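so my prof wants the structure for this chain in the tokens format not the other one, which i didnt know existed until like an hour ago. anyway here's the sequence
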Amino acid sequence: MMKTLQKLGKALMLPVAVLPICGILMGLGYALAPAVMGAPGATEGFAYVLGFFLIKAGGALIDNMAILFAIGVAVGLAEESDGTAGLAGLVSWLMITNLLSTGVVSVIAPGMMASEVNAVAFSKIANPFTGILSGIIGATCYNKFKNTKLPDVLAFFGGKHSVAIVTGLVSIVVSAILLFVWPVVFGVLVAIGNGIKGLGVVGVGLYAFLNRLLIPTGLHHALNNVFWFDTIGLGDLTAYWGALTEGGVMPNGNPVNWSVGMYMAGFFPCMMFGIPGAALAMIQTAKTKKRKATIGLIGSAALCAFLCGVTEPFEFAFMFLAFPLYVVYALLYAIFAAVTVALGYRAGFCFSAGLTDAIFSSFLPAASKSWLLIPLGIAAFVVFYLVFLFAIKKFDLKTPGREDDQDGEMKIELANNDYTAMAEIIMEGLGGKDNVVSIDHCITRLRLEVKDRLLVDEKKIKSSGAAGVIRPGKTSVQVIIGPKVQFVFDEFKKLAK
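here's what i got, hopefully its the right format
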């Protein structure tokens, strides 16, 4: 399971890498033109126009993150990282999100749209979960059908041309399943949210935990609609920016019978300070040769979270690579959210819990003890840093910059530079192509799955000129090649066909 998640995490690195700069652009734009995001502020002038421009530039990718995932995951999980798989992932995304859009569902299943919860569920179908699912469908169809042979009259539709067609058909079936499953799951989470709203401080912590844990699925929207918007008589965000306080009355007549801001305040110390602390731990524990690259990815993601509360670039960078750590990350949110509310700090966000909203929200009536953000933030930075540092080192978690590739392997000089001959010997040592299930490679290693581990002859493989053989699992084999692994991989693929 963990191996599968790590492979998915690796595939996400390409689309994730572009997100931090987009988030930073949105944060700067929001600071210049808060009115664009619905916060109080000017709606004209140079600052507004520039802010508007920056927000739209950053939002072009942040708002369409799921599409990036659909394409990036498909390419990353494809056996040859072929662009055909990326097209298939996009086909799947377009098919699923269109068939499950509110407009289509209202025609094919009008009874479902009668429920407000279901209507919200289908309005949120374009989410990271759907993007990742589409990518997996696209890659799976590519790996299974890329070599499909058809009769001569249909030959044009064979091979890679068949991948997108099959993907479309599979996506129709998946859409039909999700038509019934998605609103049920969404409804269950809404019911859970309704159940925990009366638990006070404990409920705040539980909500924050589930909110973070559900980020990769997109189902956090279900909980958010319970706590932030007035769908069931509770609308923390609506009340906060409507300048209401406890004892007030919502626009629809519902009483404000909770401490306004309690379901948003706890995110500020975590996003603004906790994430930078966790990021520092990741950077410090990254391998020496990968530290600069890690700083570029994780450091910019942390800055993005601090400025504007866009956390996805940071979260998706490690949630699949080290999922247990992501669960710990969600637990830290729960703890700090509960503590924050218990201490009386109240703040709200119009966009997200970053610096800009922390400043703007502090002037509204529901704001309370705004000064507490500093000590809470310092505490969050230290705790997130120490917990992440301990967990990464103790359990050797594969966060960015800590991938399995050994630094010394980049210096390996092959004993045999005849890549075709090397590939042939390695294939023989693996028990022949019929024993090879899957083929992949990283920076320095061939990564292989075999049917029968007993057929693997390590001495034979090493005789090819390879630097070493590692067997991390019962059916997993890694052949250490060095920086020229791509050339051996290309020849190996030819033999495996």
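also thought this was worth mentioning. The radius of gyration is 25 Å.
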